[in-house]
Structures are given as structure tokens and as C-alpha cells.
Here is the input.
Amino acid sequence: MIKINKIIWDFSDTEFEDCSYEDARRITILPESLKIKSKDLESDADEEEIIEYLSENFGFCVESIEMEDD
Here is the structure.
């Protein structure tokens, strides 16, 4: 399991770019943190693979993530 402690979503070039970050995140119902099961993504996935997974599954670009150290 991969634990992501903080996800910063990128709302530029979306209809939410003029909203505050927190308002946009709440309206779009995007998580601040997340656990990804190993069946969905390999536990040794690098940061780029995780960001791609999040973007594909939630439909918004990711600016950055902070992951829990093992």
C-alpha cells in the first residue's frame, strides 16, 4: 500500500482556476491525502507513476505529492 500524505492538485486551465485552492478542491471532491492499494499500483511505483495514476483516476493534474517514508 502506498500512503500519500499530501496531494496538491493543479487547477490552472480549468473552470476552477479563479477559485481559492481549498474551494476548488472541495467543489471537485478531490482528496488531500490517499492510500493506494497494491492491486491498483505497485508498491515500488515512483513519484511520476503515482502522479500519473492520480491524474488518470481523478481527472485533474497533480502539482505535487508528499509520501510517507517507509
About this structure: Residues 2-67 form one domain. The radius of gyration is 12 Å.
